[in-house]
Amino acid sequence: MPEIKTEFAKYTLLKQYTDTVPLEYYPVEKLQATTIDVQEADAEKIKKFQKERFKDIQLPLYVIIEPDGDDFREVARYPLSVIRDASDFANFLRKNATNQ
Length: 100
Hints:
The chain is of the alpha+beta class and 100 residues long. 37% of the residues lie in helices and 13% in strands.
């Protein structure tokens, strides 16, 4: 999907893990103490944040946000969790890009 890749390049992407946070996202100095229980607990915090902040636990959830002071605001949300139409999704990204 080169069209989507081109549009994603206009954004800073954030991927959140809501089942198990992969070890590669932990600092090296904390790897020794990072157990599967820690990874799952961290993912549960992310899931809780998603549910509270976006009122949605759809996976994946595509939301465009932008800074708003010390917080952020939601600019747009793609209504589907599955990209069925690459052109439609690329248009969603194109329409909502603020850094063009």
